[in-house]
Amino acid sequence: MDIRVCFILVLEALLAAALLWRCGALRTRAQWCVGLAVIVLGFALRALVLDHETLDYQNFLSPWVTFYRENGGFRALWRPVGNYNIPYLYFMALFSYSSIRDLYLIKCLSILFDVLLAWGSAELLGVFCESAWRKLGCFACVLLLPTVILNGAFWGQCDSIYVALAVLALWLGLKDRPVAAMICLALSFGFKLQAIFVMPVFALLLLRGKLKWFHLAVFPAAYVLLVLPCVLLGRPFLDTVLLYANQTGSVGSALNYNSSSIFGIFWHVANEEAAATTAIAASAFYMLLVLIAASLFRDRLSDRAILCAAVLFAVGIPFFLPHMHDRYFFAADILTVVLAFALPWTFPAAPLTQFASLLGYHAYIYMRFFLPMRYGSWSLIAVLVLTAAAFARELYTSGGTKRNTAAL
User: Over the stretch 216-259, which tens digit does the pLDDT of each residue have?
Assistant: First the structure.
């Protein structure tokens, strides 16, 4: 491995320690020892798989970097490349200037956001719990979560970027920092369309008064500023801003792509087009039910209830949608961990979600199923039932808005 890559990993590990200290999870010598051990283990595991190349890297990511290297780096951003949004392509163009192998740069970028994801999750937990040990445990679980390690360091994917930004957006919203929350949410959406699985929870922040309607204008403004450099380099404005709308057909036409969605159970249907339409309607109806329930009990809409709703959205929306891929429950993987530390009796939701996601990862990595995907689908149904019970309990508990912190 290039010594420069080792240096980058060391810097990222030091950042992890600094952020862990900043969030108040390192208050005692024992916590310092545990925290540093977790960071060393997390980065050691990532270093072991850093050389692995997947077909996604060989067929897509590396050719994108090569394209920018051969066409002037940032000057080529006006030309359409790949099917990722502009912000991620900024990094592909940046990497084209480096002599470090692009495989390592791509993975180090994802690892950086693994760190931010673990920190953001610990900070989000801090809204509900002041315990340093719980924050440390949450940070450790996220940093060492199998899907987090596999997604970035092994696979070279970037789901940790948009989910880290979405988690930070939720944390900032709950901490009454609406402008920063909307900026982070716009950044999350800018990197991946899958941010829409979490975005409905911000309607609940509106209900709670933590967001005002005029704060919503920050979102499109931040998004336009995010893609503006590409427009200034010559890419048509509308094509750039509406990139996701123009790529709706790129997700594929199959009902399921190694995902533990409802179509893991209903694998074969007679009319796939009708099934897809019905599933989209079901997903929208499900989302509306959660929003209506929150609206009816807005006076009891505690921070914990909002976290439960975030999990319901992150799990339920992609569960009902067609054309879902193996990595589309990444946000659910993280939020169920936070929920487990905030409400310990919901703990089973985290391993069940992880199991469902790992079935899809196994199918891609080994090109065969470890178990039929329906096992993952039934696991997610159990997660939805458990989280819905937690959500209902928070809404029906009197004085719920006052019970937002707890000590271990």
Answer: 999 999 999 999 999 999 888 888 888 887 766 556 678 999 99
DSSP code per residue over 153-193: IIT---HHHHHHHHHHHHHHHHTT-HHHHHHHHHHHHHH-G
- The tens digit of pLDDT for each residue in 335-379 reads 999 999 999 999 999 999 999 999 999 999 998 999 999 999 999
pLDDT digits (tens, 9 = 90+) for 388-398: 999 999 998 85
Q: For residue 172, which phi and psi values (nearest 5 degrees)?
A: -65, -35
The three-point CA angle 270-275-280 to 5° equals 175
Give the whole-angstrom CA distance, residue 6 versus residue 28.
Answer: 29
Phi, psi at 252, each rounded to 5°: 100, 160
Residue of 50, 377, 359, 328 whose CA lies nearest to 163 = 328
Q: How far is CA 167 from CA 121, 152, 244, 310, in A?
A: 7, 17, 22, 10
If one counts every other C-beta atom within 10 angstroms of the C-beta of residue 199, the result is 17
| Identity of the amino acid at 302 | S
Residues paired with 148 in a beta bridge: none
Residues facing residue 324 across a β-bridge: 256
